[in-house]
């Protein structure tokens, strides 16, 4: 008999349903030669400081820093009392493992650092001596579960993942416990001020932008727009530029001296350049880009909500694993992706099917760019009925997946220079326009067309400056962070990089980030809950308490984005075996 332990009840039920439930017991299922039970996520937690010594129940600066030796674990507690539900389930797991007919333990937890540590802590706490294997799944469909159970892997293969998880957990405990107590005693005025490793640099990102907005000084600048008339009676617009290609000027007086000579002047199209361009679909979703997409498209959504809904769809067998940082699919999933595309095409009218053509491209399938889990895509299980919120997330992932197999959008981009001849001077104007040729993958989206549509024009065509307007523009301060822009800043370690420019991000950051895709949304939620940031409409702003922490708290390194990025990269290096967890912990302690 093999015992499968799932991370939560819903996952255990999925596995049991797939294998065909034969017997339902209190706290577990029996299926053929499998017993299936579950945890509730974390069943164990690190000891509190006062568990080591009662004197730490009072917060005093003279007792700090406190670093346990060794770190110890206990059953989850709520306000000092053992969580009875966690204790009951842990006892049940121990009873099932101890059964004489159980020869192997299979744990089916999320395939990431956190999932690994949750399972390993249970096995260490219960001192499990029986063989332990890992069920590695990216989705919970029937085919995936059956195939996965045939290819379980020894848990010892994931010892580096465990070491990274332990290092992260212990480091966060030391930083959180010691600095929270220090901050609360010194600055809290009888209020607990939470200090955590990932929270503080995230707070600093919001603080820095708020400060930039506060210090911003607006400036006026001016542009001269000309309206040109062709011999055929067509009109188009251009922007004046001087020999240095400056188009914006600090004073309107500059144009006032030019306009008398321009009025009613004639000229011609001096240069015209037309390029055929293609626009390819954006990459598949990782968790962060999915959160960006939904929170910008839908009112009232938070990144935490996007993750929760995506997790439900994953557990419902409709999406692949959502807590991923990859925007590519592993090359082993080529046949799987083809089958998913076919399942969608089978539900479409014949005319729509013709849009899609399955292609194997490095823009979609690239094992070298997959770290852990592949990008989020639909599974072959197509839902019949979803809630409104589930439908929003599912449709976003489905459309992004389908767009990969539709030809590129094509358009024609035109750039022309019009020259007007005055009595003594020649004046140049620049015009840009874009015309859609093929809609391509954009057929899946209601994209707003903002391009200038130009009439048919040709080089040396004679034109008349029919009208002109001096336009005043005032520089605007940077926009405050929204939840989606803060997620992007956390992923890029505060660097202002283009979301799609992956090569630039990779070369500059070399793996640095703040938090992980799975924890960033929770970090923003914590910042709200402790009162460091607030919502102003869709914007996130730093509170007075948040400003005080950024300006006065002495542990400056904790607010340093580069330092935090280095720590996150170091945890990744532990997973790869490129750094020891002891070295990492020495740097923290």
> In angstroms, what is the radius of gyration?
30 Å
Q: Largest sheet, described in full?
A: 7 strands, mixed
The assigned CATH architecture of the largest domain is: Orthogonal Bundle
What percent of residues adopt helix (DSSP H or I)? 25-40%
CATH topology (level 3) name of the largest domain: Topoisomerase I, domain 2
Molecular structure report:
This protein is of the alpha+beta class and 589 residues long. It has four domains: 2-151, 3-Layer(aba) Sandwich (Rossmann fold), CATH 3.40.50; 165-210 and 480-588, Topoisomerase I, domain 2; 220-277 and 409-474, Topoisomerase I, domain 3; 287-403, Topoisomerase I, domain 4, CATH 1.10.290.10. Helix content is 38%, strand content 20%. The chain has helices spanning 9-19, 49-52, 84-98, 113-125, 142-150, 159-187, 199-215, 253-256, 259-262, 287-297, 303-315, 334-345, 350-353, 388-403, 483-491, 502-509, 520-529, 544-552, 561-576, 581-588; strands spanning 2-6, 23-25, 28-31, 34-38, 44-46, 73-75, 77-78, 81-82, 104-108, 132-134, 153-154, 220-230, 235-241, 266-279, 409-421, 426-438, 462-474, 533-536, 539-542. A seven-stranded mixed β-sheet has the order 2-3-4-1-9-10-11, sandwiched between helices. A six-stranded antiparallel barrel has the order 12-13-16-15-14-17. A hairpin with a 2-residue loop joins strand 2 and strand 3. Helix 10 packs across helix 11, helix 11 packs across helix 14 (388-403) and helix 11 crosses helix 17 (520-529). The two termini are 44 Å apart. Mean pLDDT is 89; it is low at 496-511.
């Amino acid at each position: 008999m093999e015992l499968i332990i799932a991370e939560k009840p819903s996952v255990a039920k999925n596995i049991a349903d797939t294998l065909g439930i034969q017997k339902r017991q209190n706290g577990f299922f029996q299926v053929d030669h499998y017993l299936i039970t579950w945890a509730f996520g974390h069943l164990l937690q690190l000891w509190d400081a006062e568990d080591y010594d009662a004197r730490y129940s009072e917060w005093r600066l003279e007792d700090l820093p406190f670093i346990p030796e060794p770190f110890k674990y206990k059953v989850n507690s709520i306000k000092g009392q053992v969580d009875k539900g966690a204790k009951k389930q842990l006892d049940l797991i121990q009873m099932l493992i101890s059964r004489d007919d159980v020869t192997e333990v299979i744990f089916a937890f999320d395939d990431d650092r956190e999932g690994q540590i949750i399972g390993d802590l249970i096995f260490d706490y219960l001192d499990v001596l029986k063989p332990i294997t890992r069920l590695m799944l990216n989705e919970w469909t029937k085919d995936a579960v059956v195939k996965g159970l045939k290819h379980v892997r020894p848990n010892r293969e994931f010892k580096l993942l465990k070491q990274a998880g332990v290092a992260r957990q212990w480091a966060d405990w030391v930083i959180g416990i010691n600095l929270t107590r220090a901050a609360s005693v010194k600055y809290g005025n009888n209020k607990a001020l939470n200090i955590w490793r990932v929270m503080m640099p995230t707070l600093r990102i919001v603080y820095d932008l708020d400060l930039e907005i506060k210090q911003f000084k607006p400036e006026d600048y001016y542009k001269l727009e000309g309206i040109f008339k062709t011999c055929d009676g067509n009109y188009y617009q251009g922007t004046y530029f001087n020999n240095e290609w400056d188009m914006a000027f600090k004073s309107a007086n500059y144009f006032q001296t030019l306009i008398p000579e321009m009025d009613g002047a004639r000229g011609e199209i001096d240069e015209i350049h037309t390029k055929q361009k293609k626009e390819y679909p954006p990459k598949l979703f990782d968790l962060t880009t999915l959160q960006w997409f939904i929170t910008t498209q839908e009112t009232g959504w938070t990144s935490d909500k996007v993750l929760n809904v995506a997790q439900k769809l994953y557990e419902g067998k409709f999406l692949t694993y959502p807590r991923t940082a990859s925007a590519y699919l592993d090359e082993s999933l080529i046949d799987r992706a083809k089958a998913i595309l076919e399942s969608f095409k089978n539900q479409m009218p014949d005319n729509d099917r013709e849009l899609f053509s399955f292609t194997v491209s490095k823009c979609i399938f690239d094992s070298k760019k997959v770290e852990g889990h592949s990008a989020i895509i639909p599974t072959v299980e197509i839902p019949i009925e979803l809630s409104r919120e589930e439908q929003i997330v599912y449709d976003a992932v489905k459309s992004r997946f389908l767009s990969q197999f539709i030809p590129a959008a094509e358009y024609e981009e035109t750039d022309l220079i019009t020259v007007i001849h005055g009595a003594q001077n020649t004046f140049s104007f620049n015009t840009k326009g874009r015309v859609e040729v093929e809609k391509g993958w954009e057929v899946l989206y209601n994209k707003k067309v903002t391009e200038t549509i130009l009439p048919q024009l040709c080089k040396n065509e004679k034109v008349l400056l029919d009208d002109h307007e001096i336009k005043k523009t005032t520089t605007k301060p940077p926009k405050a962070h929204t939840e989606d822009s803060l997620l992007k800043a956390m992923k890029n370690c505060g660097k202002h990089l283009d979301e799609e420019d992956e090569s630039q991000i990779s070369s500059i950051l070399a793996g640095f980030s703040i938090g992980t895709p799975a924890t960033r949304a929770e970090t923003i939620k914590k910042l709200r809950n402790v009162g460091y940031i607030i919502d102003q409409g869709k914007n996130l702003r730093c509170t007075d308490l948040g400003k005080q922490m950024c300006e006065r708290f002495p542990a400056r390194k904790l607010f340093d984005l580069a330092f935090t990025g280095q720590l996150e990269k170091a945890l990744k290096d532990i997973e790869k075996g490129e750094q020891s967890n002891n070295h990492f912990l020495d740097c923290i302690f």
